Amino acid sequence: MFVGLGFMAFMSVTTLAIDVGMLMTAKTQAQTAADSSALAGATALAFNSASDYTSSGPAVQSAINAAIAAGNGVVGSPVSINASDVSFQPDPVTGTIDRVKVAVYRTAARSNAVPTLIGSIFGIRSVDVGATATAETIPANAENCIKPWAVPDKWIENTNPPWDGTDTFNAHPLSPTLTPDGFVGTNSAGYSGYNPQTNAGTKLTLTSNAGTVSGVQTYFRVDLPGSSGASDFQNDIDSCHAGTMQIGDTMTAEPLNMKAATKAGVDALVAQDPSAYYDTTTHQVVSSQHPSPRVVVIPLYDPLQYQNTLIAGHPQIVIADFMGFFIESADATGKVTGWIVPIAGLTKGAGTPPVVAFGRSIRLVN
Prior knowledge:
The protein is of the alpha+beta class. The chain is built from five helices and 17 strands. Helices cover 24% and strands 26% of the residues.
């Protein structure tokens, strides 16, 4: 009798050790699949389409594909996820639909419950396992690996509308009949700057700004933190500058002629991924590297702040936002040609993120 009772106790402990351990692993794996799915959905929402919530849209399909990817199996089998298991939620602060919630299953109802090893002896042949996750895409306020070219952010063109690639910013026109140009920053829903949805795919040829006029396709040569001179300037172009900068940071214009350093830096950068190109049909960068080193971050400065401080005699180049840019080439005059592309970003500091920004930060919220 004692041997029999001991055997039953031993079997129970074995069940606990084997099946419960396996089920804990299954739960962890299911949560990993859900997390990956939510992050993939939020990434597609940020960079493919911010308003396509349909079952065939990029956000839903990316979420499904990530959940059933080979590395996201649960005890050797993929989870079950349908389009109806992917939902979109509003941000609790802004009300913007920028959250993706997913649910993944290995359950009897989906005909893929997790089988037990020892529990079947006691009549427990399978166990349901599932997980949920929510990820959000929020405006980013910081970036790293920044290139030393400060470009004016997109403004409201009033003196010579509409805004196009030939305009220059003029907040103080000499003629009283002209309406001043304006600029609205990232802390307002009316932000006038570049938009990754509407401006992606725009080709720009950026010319070094040797004067004081903020033109759409001009840039100031700037010193990044800890850098100065032609050597650092070139290194900051062809490699990743260590350090992070945020919206609101002030940059210093580089007084030296950097045409040769610009071309040398761009040539070295292009050589790191020479076959990459921008596909104007799909509006995507085609590259064997993910991401391509030729997709860079360019700081955008506040043209209104610059012009007002220029008039006061102490011009300031203040970062208003950041922009993604696929570099195509540079010539001997320092002109840099490329395409506007979406970019991911960072959220830094204790304050609230900007209301709107070009870069997006993707993170899990629960």
